[in-house]
Design a protein that fits this description.
Elements (H helix, E strand, L loop, with lengths): L2 H89 L1
C-alpha cells in the first residue's frame, strides 16, 4: 500500500468519525427536543388538570352557598309562619 492510499484511508476514517459525530449530535438534539416537547406537554396537561380542579371547587362552593341561602330563606319563612300563627292565636 502506498503512502497516498494510507492518507486516503486515514481521511476516510476521519470523515466517517466526523459524520458519526454529526449524526450523534443530531440524534442527541432530536432526543433533547422530543424530551423537552414531552415535558412541555406534561406541564400543559398538569395546568389544565389544576384549572379543572379549581373550576370544580368553585362550582362546589357556589352550590354550597346556594344551598345555605336556600336554607336561610326556608328558616326565615318558617319563622314568619310561626310569628303569624302566634299573632293569630293572640288575636283569638
Amino acid at each position: 500500500m502506498g503512502q497516498s492510499e494510507n492518507n486516503n484511508s486515514s481521511n476516510d476514517y476521519n470523515n466517517n468519525n466526523g459524520n458519526n459525530s454529526n449524526t450523534n449530535t443530531k440524534k442527541s438534539e432530536k432526543f433533547n427536543y422530543c424530551r423537552e416537547k414531552a415535558r412541555k406537554e406534561e406541564e400543559e396537561e398538569e395546568e389544565e388538570e389544576e384549572e379543572e380542579e379549581e373550576e370544580e371547587e368553585e362550582e362546589e362552593q357556589e352550590e354550597e352557598q346556594e344551598q345555605e341561602e336556600e336554607q336561610e330563606q326556608e328558616q326565615e319563612q318558617e319563622q314568619e309562619q310561626v310569628q303569624q300563627q302566634q299573632q293569630q292565636q293572640q288575636q283569638q
